[in-house]
Amino acid sequence: MASFVSLDSLDGTTTADAMRRALATPGCAASSCGSAAGPGDLPAAVWDRIKDHPCYSEEAHHWFARMHVAVAPACNIQCHYCNRKFDCANESRPGVVSERLTPAQARRKVVTVANEVPQLSVLGIAGPGDACYDWAKTKATFDLVRNAIPDIKLCLSTNGLALPERVDEIAAMNVDHVTITINMIDPEIGARIYPWIFHEHRRWTGIEASRILHERQMLGLERLVARGILVKINSVLIPGVNDAHLPAVHAAVMARGAFLHNIMPLISDPAHGTHYGLTGQRGPTPAELAAVQDACGGGARLMRHCRQCRADAVGMLGEDRGSEFTMDRIPETVAYDPSARDAYRDVVARERVDHDAARRAAAAVLDEVEAEVPVLVAVATQGGGRVNLHFGKATEFHIYEASTIGVRFAGVRRVEENYCRGGWGEDGYLERIIAALAGVEAVLCAKIGACPAQAFEAAGLVVTDAYAQDYVETAVATWFAEARGRRRRALTA
Ligand code: CLF
Ligand code: SF4
C-alpha cells in the first residue's frame, strides 16, 4: 500500500513539526519521479492560479478549504429562489447564514480559522446580499484580511448588476476569482426568475428589469475577462423555466471568456419561504441536472463538484465547520501564525507528486482492460484524493466513471443522513443511501460493517473496503480491472 498522510492526523494538528511528522513514513520512489503539475489540458500559468482553489479545480477540492464571511447583506435584486433569511442554522443552501459580521469581526474570524484549519486557501464573500452592491463592506473586509494573511485567495460572488463599475477596483485588489450568477440571456425568461431589480436609484420590474440585468451581467463578464480575472458562472437550473435555455447561456458566457460554468439544481421547499418554494416550483432530479450538463457539452469547463455552500460555510467542500467558529468562540485579539498553512502546503506538494504517479499507473491498467461499457463507482472520501472514509460516516459519495479510457470524476451524490448513529446503523437511512446511489455498480469505502454490506449485496451493489487508503483513481481502476476479470496489479505509488 502506498504511504499516506491521514487527513485525520492533520485535523487536530496546528504545528508545522507535527505535520511533518505525519510525513515521516517513507514514501516510494514515485515521490521522486513524475510531475505534480495539474490537468494536462491547462496551461501551467492557469493551473498555478487555480491549483489551490477548491471550487475552480476539482483536483484542488481534495486538498483545500474555503470559508465564507457574510459581511455584505444588502442586495439590489430579488430572485424568486431567495428570501435572504437571516438565521436558520438547519438549512444548507446559498444565501443562508446564521451570523452577519462586520469587516473587523470577519478579519478576526478568518485569522482564527487560518490558524486552526491549515487547508484554508480561499476567503469568499457569497451572500446573503450582493458583494458588489454592498461594496464598502466587501472592500473593507478584503483589505483587512489581505493585510493579515497576504497569500489568501480572495473570491467574490455577485449577481452582476453592480459589477461593471467595480471591475477596476476588483482588479486593483488582486481578486483573481469572481463568480457571476447568470440564469438567463433572454429577458422573457428572466422575468420569470427576477420580479424586480434596483438600478440607478429606481426599481425596475418585468422584462425591462431582466434586460438591464442581462446587459450588466454580460458587460461585467467582458470587463473581468479583459482584466485577466478568472470568472465562474453559476446558473440555477429551474425546471420548466430555464432548463432548455441553459445551453444557450453556456454558449454565451463561454464565448465571452468565462473560465468555468457551474449549473446548480434549484433548492425549493415551502419551508424556505421563497416565491418558488411557496408556489410549488420544483427543483430538478439528478438525471435532469446531468442531462442539462451534457447538453452544455460536458467537459472540463463544467463544474460538477459544487456543494451549494452556506454563505457562512467553513472547511472543505462538503463539510461545514461553521459552528466551531461562531463569534462567541473567536478571541478578541488574534495574530496570524503561518506555520500550519505553510507546512500543510508541503504535505500537499508531496502528495500531489505521488497522486500524479498513481493516476498514471491507474491509466496504464485501464489500457489493458478490454472494451467495456463505462460503469459508475461511488467513493467514500474525506479528502486527500483517497478512499479514506468509513461508510457509516459518509454524508456524500464521490461518483467516478470508470472506462477503458480512464477514471473520470462525474459528480457528488449527497445523502440526507449518514448511516451510523452513535454506534448503531439506521436501516431507514440505508434504504435512502442505496436509492441515492441508483446507477452505481460499486461502492468503495475505508470500512463497512456486515449488516450494511449485506443490504448492499441484496440490492445488487458491490461494496468493499479492500482499497482503503488507496488513491481514488488507483482504487477505481483496480476494482474495474478486477471486476472485468483482470488480474489485480500492484498500483502503489
Ligand atoms: Fe465561495 Fe463560491 Fe468562491 Fe467557492 S463557494 S465564493 S467560488 S470560495 Fe464553490 Fe460553494 Fe459551489 Fe460556490 S462549492 S457554492 S461554487
Ligand atoms: Fe438573494 Fe443573492 Fe438573489 Fe440577492 S442576488 S436575491 S442575495 S440569491
Task: Tell me the layout of helices and strands.
Elements: H1 7-11, H2 16-22, H3 44-50, E1 65-68, E2 77-78, H4 103-116, E3 120-125, H5 135-148, E4 153-158, H6 167-172, E5 177-181, H7 187-190, E6 196-199, E7 202-205, H8 206-226, E8 230-237, H9 246-255, E9 260-265, H10 275-279, H11 286-295, E10 302-303, E11 314-316, H12 339-367, E12 375-379, E13 396-403, E14 406-414, E15 420-421, E16 424-425, H13 427-436, E17 440-444, H14 450-458, E18 462-464, H15 472-483
Parallel strand pairs: 1-3, 3-4, 4-5, 5-8, 8-9, 9-10, 12-17, 17-18
Antiparallel strand pairs: 1-11, 2-6, 6-7, 12-13, 13-14, 15-16
Helix pairs in contact: 2-12, 4-5, 12-15
The protein binds FE(8)-S(7) cluster and iron/sulfur cluster.
The site of FE(8)-S(7) cluster (CLF) has 18 residues, from strand 1, strand 3, strand 4 and strand 5.
GO molecular function, one term: metal ion binding
InterPro entries: Aldolase_TIM (IPR013785), Di-Nase_FeMo-co_biosynth (IPR003731), DiNase_FeMo-co_biosyn_sf (IPR036105), MoaA_NifB_PqqE_Fe-S-bd_CS (IPR000385), Nase_CF_NifB (IPR005980), NifB_C (IPR034165), rSAM (IPR007197), rSAM_sf (IPR058240)
Pfam family, one: Nitro_FeMo-Co
Q: What tags apply to this protein structure?
A:
493 residues; alpha/beta; 8-stranded mixed beta sheet; 5-stranded mixed beta sheet; 18 strands; 33% helix; 17% strand; disordered N terminus; disordered C terminus; binds FE(8)-S(7) cluster; binds iron/sulfur cluster; 4Fe-4S; Aldolase_TIM
